[in-house]
Design goal:
Layout lengths: L2 H24 L10 H12 L5 H9 L1 H22 L6 E2 L9 H23 L8 H12 L1 H5 L2 H7 L2 H18 L1 H5 L23 H29 E2 L11
Helix pairs in contact: 2-3, 3-4, 3-11, 4-9, 4-11, 5-6, 6-11, 9-11
Membrane topology: Multi-pass membrane protein
Protein name: Sodium:proton antiporter
Organism: Streptantibioticus rubrisoli
Length: 251
């Protein structure tokens, strides 16, 4: 494709997008108005579905199909990162040297690791009730696990990091979101429609399908972040370049 043709296609698409974007913006309520139709409908729907956290209701119920696309993007990003970071034929693994850590860093890291993991599980489990959810809790879980790297060294992180299990959990979590959408189709409703018992408002078992999808997202995000960081850490710590020099500091 020639440069002139690419530019022509770009400007044609840009004009269509500009017209559509302008038409959409002109239909929005004025700034400072007391009318918030989208917010009012979203909150009403959240209460109707007995989901105390309106954000989780929007993400995993009202617009769950959009969130499925976002989670798929994250899964594809992790997969693409691993493909790019895989060990090349002319690279080899080197032994990991143990690093020196201050006693205070070791103490605080050891104390915060279990606390952070419990906090991450709490954020994921209570995503339908309070601020947080699978995306936020998954990142906290991955961060908590890597406190072992800060408090000790890379060898300790590798020992407590079941990479093969987390790799499979990443795929299972991403696939579970898509499969859970079939529950609605199985009972004659729409894909990803919230058809499970809604429970009691404000209780851990409330929200119907929301906490189940939220848990799948937490597993996918937490596992995916750990697996992706493993690829970067391997490059920085273990992979030896073709020249025979370490790529990282050897922690």
């Amino acid at each position: 494709m020639s440069r002139r043709l690419r530019l022509a296609l770009f400007w044609a698409a840009a004009v269509v997008f500009a017209v559509a974007f302008t038409a959409a913006c002109t239909g929005l309520p004025d700034f400072g108005t007391l009318s918030h139709p989208y917010g009012s409908r979203a909150i009403a729907a959240a209460f109707h579905q007995r989901t105390a956290n309106t954000i989780s209701s929007v993400n995993f119920d009202q617009r769950a199909f959009d969130t499925l696309g976002e989670e798929s993007i994250l899964f594809a990003a992790v997969l693409g990162g691993l493909v790019l970071l895989r060990r090349a034929r002319d690279e080899r693994l080197a032994g990991v040297r143990r690093g020196r850590v201050l006693p205070s860093t070791r103490m605080f890291g050891s104390l915060l690791l279990p606390i952070t993991l419990v906090t991450g599980v709490y954020i994921v489990a209570h995503g339908q009730l309070s601020p947080g959810g699978g995306f936020q809790g998954g990142v906290i879980l991955a961060t908590g696990l890597h406190l072992a790297y800060i408090a000790a060294d890379y060898g300790v992180l590798k020992a407590i990091r079941p990479l093969a299990v987390l790799d499979a959990a990443d795929a299972v979590g991403a696939g579970a979101f898509a499969v859970l959408g079939l529950v609605g189709l199985a009972v004659g409703a729409a894909y990803l429609q919230n058809v499970l018992p809604l429970g009691t408002f404000g209780q851990l078992s409330s929200g119907g399908l929301v906490p189940v999808i939220n848990a799948a997202v937490g597993v996918e995000v937490g596992s995916g972040v750990v697996v992706l960081l493993a690829g970067f850490l391997d490059q920085a710590v273990e992979i030896v370049s073709p020249t025979g020099k370490d790529n990282g500091a050897g922690r």
